[in-house]
Amino acid sequence: MQTSNALDPQSPLARAIYDLGIVSGVVFALIFVIVTGAIVYAIFRFRVREGEPDPKQIAGNRKVEMAWTIIPFLIVVFLLVMTLGAMNRADPPPAPSPDLVVTGHQFWWQVDYPGSGVITANEIHIPAAKPLSVRLESKDVLHEFWVPELTRKMSNVPGQPNHIWLQADKPGTYIGQCSEFCGTQHAWMRILVVADEPTTDVTAKGLALFKTSTCINCHAIRGVAGADLRVAPDLTHVGSRKQLGAGILENTPANMRLWLKSPQHIKPGALMPDFSLTDEQLDQLSEYLSTLR
Ligand code: CUA
């Protein structure tokens, strides 16, 4: 089973927290070594010896008092500055409207995408390399959303929405876990974040072309507004099909392009006309269609 690893950050948000942990850890280790070293040194160097008088007393010594006030103060100021920087990077202010709403339930997660109206559960699909604004809510008790490799931990509080940012550097699957005890099945409140290849400029243009050309007069793609006619094949998952044109071509990027360029040359009499798309348009459209999996 895949597990998560807080020491393997996979986003700028998680990296900010990890880096702060490393810096703090180094500072604490140095303090530990210096203080322990000084104690051990003093134990052996200044142990009581037979017939020795009391050592010179230094209580109220100005220099010593200054040193052990100023040095810790500077250390604390340094850590404060580092912490504020990390908070800034790991937890920027929320976007005006969230990209995702994640609601905790006993014992599962509801995931709403307000932009498209899509609702899912327990599995969150995001585009890689894009920061998403996430609102956290709860329907019943306290839960806590935590995907260690991607972002900070944050409580889901009934009646009090909280906010985090969620991002993954590259495509992959990341495991999260409810981290606030919320009842008997708290341990089985896993979160699966699947980061998919980001939409490139080319595929975005392909989608725009699909919507503005006559494609949508015949073809449907679920999730694309206005594309709901099924006179011709539904293209929602065309990228994962093995064949094109009911078997006339193998579905490869090159063949997709060829088919879009001149369907009447490949399958004369088919109801899809030649659209005389430019080379650039063919690239955009074929790349977009190949992402529909
Ligand atoms: Cu939900 Cu613990």
Structure description:
The protein has helices at residues 12-45, 62-90, 201-212, 253-261, 263-266, 279-290; strands at residues 100-105, 108-113, 118-121, 123-127, 132-138, 143-145, 154-156, 162-166, 172-177, 190-196, 243-244, 249-250. With 293 residues, it is of the alpha+beta class. The strands form four sheets. A five-stranded mixed beta sheet has the order 3-2-1-5-8, with no helix packed on it. Strands 4-10-9 form a three-stranded mixed beta sheet, with no helix packed on it. A two-stranded antiparallel sheet has the order 6-7. The protein is elongated and about 115 Å long. The relative contact order is 0.10. The structure holds dinuclear copper ion.
Strand content: 15-25%
DSSP strand tally: 12
Q: Considering DSSP H and I runs of 4 or more, what fraction of the residues is helical?
A: 25-40%
- How would you write the strand order of the largest sheet? 3-2-1-5-8
Q: What is the global morphology?
A: elongated
Residue windows where pLDDT falls under 50 for at least 5 positions? none
Which molecules other than protein and nucleic acid are bound? dinuclear copper ion
String of helices and strands: HHEEEEEEEEEEHEEHHH
How far apart the termini lie comes to: 25 Å
> Which structural class do the helices and strands define?
alpha+beta
Total of DSSP H or I helical runs spanning 4+ residues = 6
Radius of gyration: 30 Å
How confident overall, as mean pLDDT?
Answer: 91
Characterize the biggest β-sheet: 5 strands, mixed
